[in-house]
Amino acid sequence: MERIRSRIFTIEEANQLLPYLDQALDRLAGLGRSVTGLKREIDVLRAIAGSGASDLNPDLRSLGEKEDAYETTVERFRSILAEVSRHGCIVRDLELGLVDFYTMHREQIVCLCWRRGEPRIEHWHPLDEGFSGRRPLDELR
Predict the structure, then answer these.
(1) Which of 29, 55, 78, 118 has the least C-beta neighbours within 10 A?
(2) pTM for the complete prediction?
(3) Nearest-5° angle of CA 109, CA 96, CA 1?
């Protein structure tokens, strides 16, 4: 069973966070794409530098700049993710924009489940089930 480290939300409290989360997930997705792109560029530049082909040898300053940009971007990504986590919700899947919020139902902790693009929280699932086990929120009321 998952260890509970986050806060317990009401449906209203979780819904109030959605505009913030939408913006944060957008920034995280953009930074994630940048990290991936920079990593690819660094790998190519390193491979060229390691090949010994002097006519293809990249400018080592360019490689250093890419590595610095990569580290800075990764740090920004981690910082935003930590900020989101401090609000007490759990980002489950960045690409899909899945976020869970712990709540109480009949003396048990369950997850309110939100997917980016949904106007409000309309689903929940037991702790041991994920997105595929989502159920209508009406069942909790």
Answers:
(1) 55
(2) 0.82
(3) 30
